[in-house]
Amino acid sequence: MRETDIENLLLKGFQDELKNKNNSYLYQLFMIGMRCLKPDSNGGNRINFNRYSEELKLWRQYRIGENCALNSFVIKKNRSNLFDSSSFIRALPIFLSNQDLNIAISESFKISYYITEDIDTFFFTIINGIILMEYMNENDIIQIYNILKDRLISIPSIDYIRKIKREEDKLYIIRFEDMRIKTIQILDRLISEDMSIVNYLKAILENLFSDKIDKKVMNKIEYIYKNDIVIDNSYIRNIGSYIYKLRMGRISPRSLKFVKKKDKSIYDMAEGERFNSSILGNSYLSKIERRNNREIRYVVSKSGKYKFIREI
């Protein structure tokens, strides 16, 4: 996988955001995941969940969309059992930045479970992640089928579950194993040498999650496999370059140390004020509006534009 492969994938995947010059909640969640990547001393890149927690606390204030699982997490502040179709996009930085699929699968399980306990969500995430990675490694459909099946068979479910749950949850393990068997049966039934990789992926997703997938997420998945780049963008290319450097082990963990500061509240700032946020970095408050009992504060940073809203 080359640096340009990652850059072009992001340009295709986020073409709607680039065309409309507007973030989506999926783009926001991807960027959060990217900012939380940290090289591990034992190799690979993992999610800094201390930072991830702080990022999502701030995201509550500027998010511009969500699904039911995210809404439960953000509003009710609890992990649900709802399907989270954003999970693959949230885990995409993990798959792109890791050459070792074992690390990518393990970290994607954690980031999936962070929002929801739903087993289908995890399988949705790793099916997409593994197929995409092997597609970008230029494997053909039979090779991808064999790799995906082998990975699904070898996932140490009990070890994973013990890491996230204090007590062994036998019912959860049974549900996990049932979904593993169901998924492998679908892979076996659908495989065909004459089928394109993207059509094979879509057939798997439709058979397993047909009534659950958000259309916006499905569009992103389809865009990723297209050949054409609609709009080029230097910032997105820089993000792709940064992820590639993480993937190749060229960035020191020390340079990405996260220290949570007691940041000044955005609602205590004056219009035009510049500030350095431990989450958003160097930013400035470009505009303040008040209408319909709401106060809207527009913040501009290197990673994009953010609209913070509160009731007044």
Keywords:
312 residues, alpha+beta, four-stranded antiparallel beta sheet, two-stranded antiparallel sheet, 14 helices
What's the helix-strand series?
HHHEEHHHHHHHHHHHEEEE
Strand content: 5-15%
Kindly report the spatial arrangement of strands forming the biggest sheet: 3-4-5-6
Percent range of helical residues: 55-70%
Structural class: alpha+beta
Question: What's the mean pLDDT score?
Answer: 92
Total helical elements: 14
* Span of the ends, CA to CA: 50 Å
Number of distinct beta strands: 6
Regions with pLDDT < 50 over 5+ consecutive residues? none
Shape assignment: globular
Largest pleated sheet: 4 strands, antiparallel
Global Rg: 20 Å
Structure description:
The chain has 312 residues and is of the alpha+beta class. It has 14 helices and six strands. It has helices spanning 3-13, 15-20, 25-35, 49-62, 68-75, 87-97, 101-115, 119-136, 141-154, 157-164, 170-190, 197-209, 215-224, 234-247; strands spanning 37-39, 45-47, 274-277, 281-291, 294-301, 304-311. The protein has a four-stranded antiparallel sheet, with no helix packed on it. Helix 6 crosses helix 8 and helix 9 (141-154) packs antiparallel against helix 11. The model has no long low-confidence stretch (mean pLDDT 92).
Describe the SSE topology.
Elements: H1 3-13, H2 15-20, H3 25-35, E1 37-39, E2 45-47, H4 49-62, H5 68-75, H6 87-97, H7 101-115, H8 119-136, H9 141-154, H10 157-164, H11 170-190, H12 197-209, H13 215-224, H14 234-247, E3 274-277, E4 281-291, E5 294-301, E6 304-311
Antiparallel strand pairs: 1-2, 3-4, 4-5, 5-6
Helix pairs in contact: 1-13, 1-14, 3-6, 6-7, 6-8, 7-8, 8-9, 8-12, 9-11, 11-12
